Structures are given as structure tokens and as C-alpha cells.
Amino acid sequence: MQQRTSSVRNIKLNGLTYSGIFNIGDAVYASTKAKGIAVQKEGAVFSGDDGVQFENYSLFDMETNLPEQQQPVQKTTLQHKETIHVGDINLLGVSQAAIFQVGSIREVTSEARIKHFRRLMDDNTHTNQADS
Predict the structure, then answer these.
(1) pTM of the model
(2) Which CA distances in Å does 80 have to 4, 15, 69, 101?
(3) d(CA 113, CA 123)
(4) Could you tell me if residue 79 is inside a domain?
(5) d(CA 119, CA 10)
(6) Which of 11, 29, 77, 102 gives 20 to 30 Å between its CA and that of 61?
(7) Structural domain count of the chain
(8) Which InterPro entries match (predicted)?
(9) Do the Cβ atoms of 26 and 105 come closer than 8 Å?
């Protein structure tokens, strides 16, 4: 990996959460993994435990289906300048296995598994319907 200098005048990042990576500098390898359950309720009243657990959903137990490694690609890269200059970077957030990298990186693996639920009120009873 050819070494280059990255020069950034200003970075503004509002949020970094849930296995997100913010890295300044060169890296050989970065790996992130996140799993989450999101429950959205109509007439939202959350009790703390809504009965939604990771072990209830096979999504979180499945093997990761990564593509097979291909033969290495032969390439020649010509860098016109030794420094990468960037002005301002404004980020709302880096989250759920995302990576923000200033610098070189050789290999990245990233995986996020999110199960979303929307619980709607039953018209007759005004209670939340069960998950599907």
C-alpha cells in the first residue's frame, strides 16, 4: 500500500454509535459488526421489555454469506501528488457498522443486521397488535 498524507481542514461529526468507526490515519484492516432490533409503536408507550429478543429471530443466527475471494487484480497506480487535500467534511452520523476513514485502508469487512417492527394500534381494542 503506497503511503500518502491526508490533509483535512475541518471535520464535524454529530454522532458516532453502534460499532461505527471513525479513523484518522492509515489502517491495514477494519472490521465492524452490529445487530439491532428497532420497535416503532403507534401510541408509543414503552415498558422497557417489549418481549423482543435476538434469540427469537433466525436472522441473527445465520452464517454470513460473503462472496468468494477472487484472484488478485494486477494494477498500477500513479499518484500525482503525495498529499490528499480536503476542505470541510460535515457528517450527521457514523452508525451501525459504518466506517469513516481518512487515510489508506487495505481491507474492510462490515456487517449490520437490523430487524424492524412496526406495531399498530388495533382499531377495536386500542392495543398494539402482535409482531409478524
Answers:
(1) 0.68
(2) 11, 34, 30, 21
(3) 32
(4) no
(5) 42
(6) 29
(7) 1
(8) Spore_germ_GerPE
(9) yes
